[in-house]
Amino acid sequence: MPADTAVLHFGSVASWTPPGSDHIHTAVQRLRAQGTALISYDPNIRPALLGDAAGARHAVERSVGVSHIVKASREDAEWLYPGTGIERIAARWIVLGALLVVVTDGAAGAHAFHTSGGGFSRPGRKAAVVDTVRAGDAFTAGLLGALLRSELYTPQTLAAAATAVLATAVDDAVLVSALTCERMGADPPTALPRPHQPAHAP
Predict the structure, then answer these.
(1) Which helix (H) or strand (E) holds 123?
(2) Is 138 helix (H, G, I), strand (E, B) or coil?
(3) β-strand pairing of 119-122 with 38-42
(4) Where are the beta strands (DSSP E) in 22-130?
(5) What pTM was computed for the model?
(6) 114-145: per-residue pLDDT in tens?
(7) Which of 61, 77, 114, 139 shows its CA 20 to 30 Å from the CA of 85?
(8) Where are the chain's structural domains?
């Protein structure tokens, strides 16, 4: 792990498949203890590989406990916790250590829950769906990019973030995911570079 790591995202098969998962967890746990980097996690559940939900919950919750941002689909969350609403699932993950939990909900958009106790939902965007491959990963990239543009790139700034700023970030993530679904294959859009700003306004 580079010493100057500022933002780290991990998840999916590697995060819950031993022996690699143990090495990943140790590295992320060490980074979390330092308290400077922002850590994002997406379990990206694959039931056929995980087997039973009870065993999967242990692996996922271990990773949630070292993360600041947790993104999961409604389908993943409800498979892990059968019969449990996403509000209760998000509350549990926040107790475990997450600062922001975002649950994507397909065409319905996304639901976000913050450590301050605030929760909100953002609508989906109409899209001419061609391929949903990597739509979830595109959502995460859009969310992290938006948080960075809003200068929410430390655990401290994320914890103190205003709901309006977080809502805008989730809207951006929904847009990125929708645009990705309109393209064949894993082909997310790229952000336009910011125009150059003079050091001193005239």
Answers:
(1) none
(2) helix
(3) unpaired
(4) 38-42, 69-73, 100-104, 110-114, 119-122
(5) 0.88
(6) 999 989 999 987 776 655 566 778 899 999 99
(7) 139
(8) 7-181
